[in-house]
Structures
1.
Amino acid sequence: MFEDLLITVKVNISVIRAIIKTNDRLRQISFGASALIKKEWNEDTELILGTLMQDIPKVIEWRVYDHCAVVTRLYAIYERFVEDLVSD
């Protein structure tokens, strides 16, 4: 049973890592390295990214939200792990 709990925690943490990496890449595209990517853009890409850019928060606000979400989610994962461990 303990192994099942550990696998669940590891899967949840790997999802968090993937989300962090994805958001970091999106921030790089939005605020940084977009000049490198523009070479591969077409009209559809410009329309999609233009629409997306209208709703993107400032980089600092985005990072703060990400950090808060990650800390909250990690707390929930470990809290659930401890509760399941104690109940077993």
2.
Amino acid sequence: MPVPDWIWFIFIFAFGCCIGSFLNVVIYRLPRDKSLVTPPSACPSCGKHIRFYDNVPLVSWLVLGRKCRYCRAPISPRYFAVELLTGLVFLGLFIMYFRTDLRPAVGPFQSGGWLVYLLHIILLGAFIAASGIDMEHWVIPLSICWFVTAAGLVASAVGAFVIDPRLIRAGDLLPGASATTGAMAVGAGVGLVISLILTATGLLKRSYESDDYGDSDATPQQKDTPKPSAEDNRKDHEPHLNHRLEAMREMLFLLPIILCSLAALWIARAFVPAHLWQDLPSKHPALMGFLGSVWGYFIGCGTVWAVRILGTLGFGKEAMGLGDVHLMGAAGAVLGPVPVVVAFMIAPFFGLGWVCIQVFFKKIRQIPYGPFLSIGVFAVMILHDRITDYIGFIFYR
């Protein structure tokens, strides 16, 4: 007997709200360098531990009247908003994937569609947390990006054992590499290792790293108030910075990745027999899924990094942030190279919409770019088939 839709909807929404409750912990604790596991949740004002009956998503915030039970300090509406948003996003994605024809290739939930859905809600949940932190502290923790990237790599490799590889390729359900992009992904990975070794040994100097201001990946002190971000520190020292020189350092870091990627492609075509070369996607779908995720990561990072470097060289000041680079790299590892580029291209339109709203209400509040990138990623996930059909129409008509 099939489970009625309303039971699915209630369960998915409640599950999403519970995940949203955890995301609130991430948003508060991660930028303060606190453990996400211990100690138990407590009121930031009085330090009293929050009882389980006061920690029910959505309900407790309303029942308590938006105040702590003990000290009556106000509870930020962000907690309610994040829980509600996560619940609605998880439910909306489930309905659009499995109860509409927006992405019919995902197939039934029980027949492998669950893996695509699980991977995508991991991405969206992590991006909600990253956006919340970015809006408050103007920084995106790289640990969130790395977690999503790891999930994309694993799911893309495992997907071939859960879903028919032919369906994955036909519906673009998970990243997959062709023989060409697979070779380039291997080369780019080798180049990244070389760049990291050169950086670790001091032969390459990291950009925006000196004794005068914090490193962009530095962790805050273990206090309730985070220390000033690297962005704040850089603004204080901008007169002493040569931003174009810092951009050149980043170009040197990327050079081994680009050269090794091209070299791997040449080696594969010159020395690997043609039949082995062309049969890789069909004979080794798990490997090519993994390499497709790797390639998506490099394309996601590279797209934003190119804009960052060109903008910095052009305007003489730092353009975008490295957190945005890793954020879109993580999205590329989950969605693949083409969707992540499209997401990056449409993100400015959401930013423009925010500016119009601000102008209309005569309120000017700058927010970082991470939330707009996240909205762009969500839009591409929902409209994936429409977008790919349109791209195919443009290039193959």
3.
Amino acid sequence: MTTARADSSPRETSKAPDPRDFLNIDAHLSEEEIGVREDIRAFVRERISPNINGWWERAAFPREIVPEMGERGLLGMHLEGYGCAGRSAVAYGLACMELEAGDSGLRTFVSVQGSLAMTAIHKFGSEEQKEEWLPPMAKGERIGCFGLTEPEAGSDPASMKTFARKDGTDWVLNGSKRWIGMGTIAAVAVIWAQTDDGIRGFLVPTDAPGFTATDIQNKLSMRASIQCDLGLEDVRLPEAAMLPGAKGLRGPFACLNEARYGIIWGSMGAARSCLECAVEYARGREQFGKPIASFQLTQRKLVDMLLEVEKGTLLALHLGRMKGEGTLRPEQVSFGKLNNVREALDVAREARTILGGNGVTLEYPVMRHMNNLESVLTYEGTSEVHTLILGNALTGVPAFR
């Protein structure tokens, strides 16, 4: 029979959980990762939060803060060399979380610039292309865009109509792209096009004759960001404009997975912002003679929101560690994107009910986050597409066609 040791003493009672980090996730972060997060959190607090309502209401992208993002290493943060910060996958994810706690549109800019345009050049470009474009893009001196989606080819990029034909040593591009972030302010567009040899990527200077970009107007989501229609009419490029390392859809899909990874973290930033707003509001809003935080139904809503934010953040951290180890699979990225964006949108909707009618105004961030997340739910793969990716992984039976 086992007996307790006579000299044993009860363990010291741990502190009550911090509502902002209920599961003590910070204990699993390095000092460097926490430092990156705190730097970007301060940047959001000082430069984004005081101004975001005006930018969002005017549908204005704050181009003036792009060089500041470059100074903080946010542009191509996960890339090595060429002036890029070379941070860990988790550090980059934490930066995305803080940016999207400010606004999805600002995190989207960082994703378009770094995870899409710069990643395409870094992964698949020639040394000359990398040297020309990556250093000024990392500083925010030049902006890039990523032209994959078309008016009739959204979830099915293999059916794109944009075509590049060889003419001597040149390439001539014709086609159109839609919902392309930053197209009207970009210096270079990464354009994916059909060729006689399959889908290839091209670096198209946006001042090339025949290239046009037009802002999409009247958006009710992502209003502090820029999305565009692109047109290519007999755009002539030298042979050196092709990305030599990308052939087929493997190229653009590799870039999309980088962007999807940032979304896994970013969506939890938006959800956290909604939760914090709802908690603060519930404590201060009185009905029937007491704060609504004292009502059981309100507490249940807050707890349900807390559960999803903490679980989603743990999922993001786990996938981030896998990414850093080089073991993360595209299907697992789909798992994170599908779950975290869907749950973030539910958190935003639940938070809005706590704020009542006040929740639909820009006085509070909740409806702005909710509207933005409707776009995040769709771009970089719809929920339906990610569901089918996971279904295929689970059953071995593809159900796309």
